[in-house]
């Protein structure tokens, strides 16, 4: 097997579901997810696809039960109180951010609209080593015993300060403390140029800013993706 530039073949699939109650469509679900093909390593392929499949099935179950019942309650309440009902929406979309040099990385955005002024998005992410199919965690990008959390928070804070020069209202006033408090070592994915650390909506910024991302270049951490 040539490990010089190992990558996976990606096939995107889409699934759509419509949920009705009282002959009224009260909830729609749309999922776009990848099927990973690693011809040189079927075991790694199976492991990665099983994880993705589990995530998709868990979201379908959540939507079909929790979110559907919530939509029913909102619909029946709207009838009782003569309020307009806005159909619920749920989206789960996978985005591949890196697929080269024996690594594949992606993030998953789950968007839900349950009435109100706007919906909300929650992001999760996964990174795998293609030759083994094993999950890669943030500490794997650093030398043992490195205080990588401190280093990353310093870099993120420095970038945030620079961003404020262009947009003074992009973050909450206490963004420095919030960067520390809401730092999550699971909230990262790989890009061609570096690791992306992200914060959820409202973690460090108002809704209008969205999910906040900070790129940590591979040159900064002294690690580069390779087989």
Write structural notes for this entry.
- This protein has 227 residues and is an alpha+beta fold.
- Helices cover 31% and strands 34% of the residues.
- It is built from 4 helices and 9 strands, in the order ββαββββααβββα.
- The strands form 2 sheets. The protein has a 6-stranded mixed β-sheet with strand order 1-2-3-4-5-6, covered by helices on one side. A 3-stranded antiparallel β-sheet has the order 7-8-9.
- A hairpin with a 6-residue loop joins strand 4 and strand 5.
- Helix 2 packs antiparallel against helix 3.
- The longest helix is centred in the first third of the chain and has 40 residues.
Summarize this structure as a short list of keywords or feature phrases.
227 residues; alpha+beta; 6-stranded mixed sheet; 3-stranded antiparallel sheet
How would you summarize this macromolecular structure in one to three sentences?
With 227 residues, the protein is α+β, with helices and mostly antiparallel strands.
